[in-house]
């Protein structure tokens, strides 16, 4: 999870950085840079004006800079260079600023140096040496960060308790519910029980029914809107019932008790006629003087 910056002190300072080479601390390190660049090729596509790209490989590059204190790099690389061998090392970059939110650690395996500065100095200037490096084919690198309690980001994510807003981001668009209802004392002409499929009504649908049918046949309006199958607006069903409207179908096809129960079932599915909330805890407010 991202962390907002509440102070300039949170910016990580390279002064607190460390560089380790083959598990040995390089105390004279002045700076370290490591990058991974993707090698991409253009992919022209028909019907698309802009040229897209395809990632084909990756290349690790970087550099490490030292105060001139010793001949560390010359000693490490000279014998291999003379013999025509490539020097490979494990580099660890660690940045742990006590004012920052956490620490960062990057490990580069199988790093190879492209050059070696044998001598570079001038009068009245501090001695420095540089070495450019590559992370060659077959090598790998890892990255990790931790907070002040020592938890890595993976552990922090595992133990993280999302906020209510974060929980709702993927749940605010709820799919409407449906149910199948069987009429206990009603069968069709073949003797099979009659089953209705109902759906929940949205807040806007309920408000529209209340406004359009205030004091008038709300039960038939709720049933007509909430019954998916059978389609109460079907002309053949209306004709069979001797009805001119879906509301008349409800009155002529269903018994009085069935109308009441069916209306109640649709309203319950829509969140009415039953409590949808549960009290978890009472929040006590501190009295202010």
Topology:
Blueprint: E1 17-21, E2 24-25, E3 29-43, E4 52-67, H1 72-82, E5 88-95, E6 102-113, E7 128-135, E8 141-147, H2 153-159, H3 164-168, E9 178-187, E10 193-199, H4 203-212, H5 218-226, E11 227-229, H6 235-241, H7 246-253, H8 256-269
Antiparallel strand pairs: 1-2, 1-5, 3-4, 4-7, 5-6, 6-7, 6-8, 9-10, 10-11
Helix pairs in contact: 4-5, 5-7, 5-8
**Largest beta sheet, briefly?**
8 strands, antiparallel
* Class from helix and strand fractions: alpha+beta
**Number of helical regions:** 8
Compute the separation of the termini in Å.
39 Å
* String of helices and strands: EEEEHEEEEHHEEHHEHHH
Shape descriptor: elongated
Low-confidence stretches: none
Strand coverage percent: 25-35%
Please estimate the helix content.
Answer: 10-25%
- Please report the total strand number as a whole number: 11
Rounded average pLDDT: 83
Which key terms come to mind for this protein?
289 residues, three-stranded antiparallel β-sheet
């Amino acid at each position: 999870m991202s962390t907002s910056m509440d102070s300039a002190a949170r910016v990580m300072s390279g002064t607190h950085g460390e560089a380790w080479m083959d598990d040995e601390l390089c105390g004279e390190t002045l700076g370290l840079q490591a990058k991974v660049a993707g090698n991409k090729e253009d992919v022209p596509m028909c019907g698309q004006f802009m040229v897209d790209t395809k990632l084909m490989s990756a290349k690790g590059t970087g550099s490490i800079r030292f105060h001139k204190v010793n001949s560390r790099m010359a000693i490490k690389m000279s014998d291999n260079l003379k013999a025509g061998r490539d020097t490979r090392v494990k580099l660890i970059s660690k940045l742990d600023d006590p004012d920052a939110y956490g620490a960062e650690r990057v490990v580069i395996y199988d790093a190879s140096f492209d050059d070696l500065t044998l001598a570079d100095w001038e009068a009245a200037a501090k001695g420095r040496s540089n070495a450019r490096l590559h992370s060659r084919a077959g090598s790998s690198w890892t990255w990790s960060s931790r907070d002040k309690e020592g938890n890595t980001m993976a552990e922090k994510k595992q133990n993280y308790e999302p906020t209510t807003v974060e929980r709702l981001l993927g749940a605010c668009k709820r799919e409407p519910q449906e149910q199948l209802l069987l009429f206990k004392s009603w069968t069709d002409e073949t003797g099979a029980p009659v089953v209705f499929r109902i759906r929940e009504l949205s807040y806007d649908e309920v408000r529209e029914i209340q406004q359009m049918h205030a004091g008038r046949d709300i039960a038939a309006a709720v049933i007509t809107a909430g019954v998916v199958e059978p389609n109460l607006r079907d002309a053949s069903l209306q004709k069979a019932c001797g009805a001119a409207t879906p509301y008349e179908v409800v009155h002529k096809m269903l018994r009085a008790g069935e109308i009441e129960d069916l209306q109640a079932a649709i309203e319950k599915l829509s969140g009415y006629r039953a409590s949808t909330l549960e009290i978890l805890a009472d929040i006590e407010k501190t009295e202010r003087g």
